[in-house]
# Entry
Amino acid sequence: MALSDFDRALIAATQTGLPLVARPYEAVGAMLGVSGEQVRERLGQMLSDGLIRRIGAVPNHYRLGYVANGMTVWDVDDAQVDALGERVGALPGVSHCYRRPRERPLWPYNLFAMVHGRSREEVERQAEAIRTLLGAACAANDILYSSAILKKAGLRLKEN
Amino acid sequence: MPDTPALATFALPDRTDLRLIDHLHGGLPLTERPFAEVGAALGLPEDEVIERLGRLLARGTLTRFGPLFQIERAGGQFVLAALEVPESAFQRIAAIVNQLPEVAHNYRREHRLNMWFVVAAESHEAARAALDRIGRLTGLPVHAFPKEREYFVGLRLAATVEEGPHGTE
# Structure
């Protein structure tokens, strides 16, 4: 799916946020020289195409009290990782779950699951649930806690 | 602890803010006056919805409000990458990495690989170029872990379950 010039302009105009005014889509349209209805139609199409996941609020986990943010990583048997990854992703408390390449010997892990909790104990309980689910298919694991947010900006498309 | 969030100083969202955040997780309607619609669902006037969102953004409770683009659907790529940064150079390297517009977020993590960031680019080539650039600018090997498969992405944090932060790191 290639982006049209209008799509690029629309992304550039909204990627840092929607204007907080009563008619936000009309305000974006005014910036781009189109009607609010055209903006809404295109955004709706992007939503149904999956180019937009949702139009919503991105909270800072820390400020909602989720101060323990653990990237749990797992070395899972290649033949079983996809089936197990789907099940890990379905666990409550897991916000992102991906398969990624290993980089042995430094990095033996191929399954990543982000877990958020109000304390490290809470994260560890959830990691324990993942470990139980993975069972013998998991050879090694670790939890990388975040100790600082250095940047959180979201997507930045360059304007052409 | 200069780089640890100072939790005690956070202005906490109130119960209405939390209901608003939870509600908006489902998405903003694509209607002419979407905040009026959100307000109607929550029993709030339109201008209060707008005002609260502005305040949550200004305080950093929300980092962003708007469309969340899934650029991979248009040929783009998100790449998770990590660096092993000597402690003495940590702030300097963080500044170098953060200045790149392609770096969407960056976290310090407790591991030998202590800096983890995501590069978001419009193509695989652009992502590769950004990673190469980070390697050149920092003088450190960049360990890239591009997504091979996505099993789940979503936020199932129950914002309204409890108020305020509990526990500290």
